[in-house]
# Entry
Amino acid sequence: MKIDSFTISKNSPVFIIAELSANHNGSLETAIETIKAAKRTGADAIKLQTYTADTITIDCNKPDFQIKGTIWEGQNLYELYKQAYTPWEWHEELLRVAKEEGLICFSSPFDKTAVDFLENLNVPAYKIASFEITDIPLIEYAASKGKPIIISTGIAEIEDIELALDACHRMGNSDIALLKCTSSYPAPIEEANMCMVKDLAERFNVITGLSDHTMGSTVPVVATCFGAKIIEKHFILSHSVGGPDASFSMDEKEFTEMVKAVREAEKAIGVVDYTLTDKQVKGKDYCRSLYIVENIKAGEAVTEKNIRSIRPGFGMHPKHYNKIIGQKFNQDLEKGSRLLKTMLKI
# Structure
């Protein structure tokens, strides 16, 4: 999978996405400064959300449209999205700033008109949000554009994932990544289930990653260790900006620390390699080997009292210990001498 200049594969670095979401809190200037801050954190990309209150829901106060059991309790959907959306007239400027900063910029469309709008801006990929995984017509339409599709699985059962993947495949698009996601805001760490990052990759033969709503960097690091190649996290310039998503977003300092932790985790994972580095080879000087531990006269027998397996590692390998017990020394030796094969009568 290639998104703009970044190639994502099993062997690539993690593609780290800063999610702008509603963290501009209605200010274009804040949105621009957030993009610049995302670059400073070490993020690879900034992601927008492309919808309006009218493209994602309807203005209705019936009980079905009231938000319950979340941090947005008491609002209706239309009110929330009217507050949270990113004005479409900002998009061109935000993409320009991102390009200037050297960040890849793309978006989550929430209906077909958003896909058309983003196509005119030539975004390099599409992200399908967790709650849109069941919108098969939207997924088909986005996939038909032939660009990489990243799909969050926050509310998905296996059948939902299969239907979404089939929708992409019907459009001739196999350039797909699945992100493990827990759609709680913030998400409890005990519900992260990062072992699913690996399972999704093996079960569906796709690149996998994490769209994270937990607090802190632990879950992104664990995801990296389970093979995540994409990590998306909500990013805010400062918690003082406020807004609907501020409470579960990382500020610049926190995001920078997360990027650093993920990059260190990548280094720690390394590769399967049983050869030793020069330092490790040198370290073998301090492993166990066979040493003379009593003064010896030529002709004496090797016993458990006069030789031992001790540190350092300049004598014979301890694997010879049982074989040489009972053999004779061919010379006088002092306590503390390395035991070498040439010191024994063969």
